[in-house]
């Protein structure tokens, strides 16, 4: 809602524009078709600018989209795991649950004393293989596949959720922890004091700025006019 702590704007992938991403604190990809090269390029620029992105994975299109992002920026952004084929348990009685969760991480710390998180049944996910440059796996599934993993690259941050809130992919959306979990994911992945949002006095700051190649290098000054050293 407009008065809630999180304001969401829904866009079809082909309708995303630079203006949308310029206003976004966070981008979530969920249930989308294969991205065009143009859209993938915009998302990579968003990450290069310090943005945060959460990808929910449950289909061949999701696997293809991760491959496209990595192909367009192989030296900048490595996936925290190599996504494989879809594993679909929805046709039978089998499912998987979260295990080996890192409750010391800020994302999962609020759920340390909530065993309900480990009882949620997931029925559709991607097979995962360790990446050459693995990221941080925050939780695994009971079948050994990675469930939640994060990778920092360039100035942005990417969180892969190897599950979907879709009702036919598991019981997540029916769980009482669904809304709190989504809020914690969003809060953890939004830029804090760094990349491209508001800076606080005395804290670190980073920014990506497009420069005119013919212009002189920029100089930074304090409010009193003192020149500051910067890289």
Give your account of this protein's structure.
The chain has 231 residues and is an alpha+beta fold. It contains four helices and ten strands, in the order αβαβαββββββαββ. It has a six-stranded mixed sheet. α2 crosses α3.
Order of helices and strands: HEHEHEEEEEEHEE
Output the structural class: alpha+beta
Per DSSP E runs of 2 or more residues, the count of β-strands stands at 10
- Gross morphology is globular
Low-confidence blocks of residues: 193-197
Mean pLDDT equals 85
Arrangement of strands in the largest sheet:
1-2-8-7-6-4
Cα-to-Cα separation, first versus last residue: 41 Å
Beta-strand content bin: 15-25%
Largest sheet: 6 strands, mixed
- Give the oligomeric state: single chain
Count of DSSP H/I helices: 4
What's the short story on this structure?
The protein is of the alpha+beta class.
Which secondary structure elements does this structure contain, and how are they paired or packed?
Elements: H1 18-23, E1 26-29, H2 37-48, E2 52-56, H3 60-72, E3 81-88, E4 98-99, E5 124-130, E6 136-141, E7 146-153, E8 156-161, H4 178-189, E9 220-221, E10 227-228
Parallel strand pairs: 1-2, 2-8
Antiparallel strand pairs: 3-5, 4-6, 6-7, 7-8, 9-10
Helix pairs in contact: 2-3
């Amino acid at each position: 809602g407009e008065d809630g702590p999180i304001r969401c704007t829904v866009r079809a992938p082909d309708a995303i524009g630079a203006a949308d991403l310029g206003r976004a604190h966070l981008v979530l990809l969920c249930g989308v078709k294969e991205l065009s090269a143009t859209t993938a390029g915009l998302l990579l620029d968003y990450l290069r600018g310090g943005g945060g992105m959460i990808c929910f994975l449950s289909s061949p299109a999701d696997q293809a989209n991760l491959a496209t992002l990595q192909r367009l920026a192989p030296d900048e952004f490595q996936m925290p795991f190599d996504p494989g084929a879809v594993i679909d348990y929805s046709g039978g009685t089998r499912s998987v649950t979260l295990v080996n969760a890192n409750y010391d991480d800020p994302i999962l710390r609020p759920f340390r004393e909530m065993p309900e998180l480990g009882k949620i049944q997931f029925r559709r996910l991607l097979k995962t293989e360790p990446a050459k440059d693995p990221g941080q796996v925050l939780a695994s599934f009971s079948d050994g596949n990675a469930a939640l993993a994060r990778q920092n690259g360039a100035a942005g941050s990417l969180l892969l959720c190897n599950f979907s809130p879709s009702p036919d992919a598991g019981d997540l959306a029916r769980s009482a922890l669904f809304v709190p979990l989504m809020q914690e994911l969003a809060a953890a992945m939004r830029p804090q004091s760094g990349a491209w949002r508001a800076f606080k006095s005395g804290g670190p700051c980073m920014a990506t700025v497009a420069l005119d190649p013919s212009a002189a290098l920029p100089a930074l000054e304090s409010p009193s006019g003192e020149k500051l050293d910067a890289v």
